[in-house]
Amino acid sequence: MTEAMRSDSETSGEGFAEACRRETGAAWDRACGHPFTLALGDGTLPQSAMADYLVQDYAFVGTLVSMVGFAVGRAPDIGAQARLSTFLAAVTSEENTYFQRSFEALQVPEGDRTAPALRAVTRDLIAAMEDAGARGSYGEILATLLPAEWIYLSWAEAQAAKAPGAFYFQEWIDLHVNADFRAFVLWLKVETDRAAAVASAAERQAMAERFARMVRLEVDFFDMFHPR
Hints:
Elements lengths: L2 H10 L3 H9 L1 H7 L2 H8 L4 H12 L2 H14 L3 H28 L4 H5 L5 H16 L2 H22 L7 H9 L3 H19 L3 H25 L3
Helix pairs in contact: 2-13, 3-13, 6-7, 6-9, 6-10, 7-11, 9-10, 9-13, 10-12, 10-13
């Protein structure tokens, strides 16, 4: 985010997170209304595509957990630490259980669950999260986490009224459209704004760049399982 963009954002009353979302433009819209998510909501996504998607997605869950763990350590107060820790608890419990049940139903081989062949985009997502955790500030970690979770909330809300049938479709939507997840994404937006407000110009720019990169990677990730 350039200083001119920041000035425009402040004048309009738009927060940092909303400004970052707006700046991603077509990529954001593509991610939130991707043909992959539409097919998932309709229940028409082939089982093989869903299985492949879950294998690649699960491959970076551990990296996500580690990155958020770094955020817990760098958080400015115990309230932020508690919110992030609650998110970690959900990812490592109910979400992990969903993956295991879905792998069984979709007959995913054990090797693909524990040591999958990673696609290039999956490796890029892992690298982006590893770099944010290892080198990024608290604000930069938030700016990496927020677009991913916000995109999932947005596409899941758009598909929530549908009844795709198979539990591995329905429950994946439900995990990202419930009240607790909505509240976390809202908190994450506010917390990202708070971090940006006390950050230097250079750090705000780094936050905006990490945000935009994650949006592009989410589009590329969905493209692997339902091409344009």
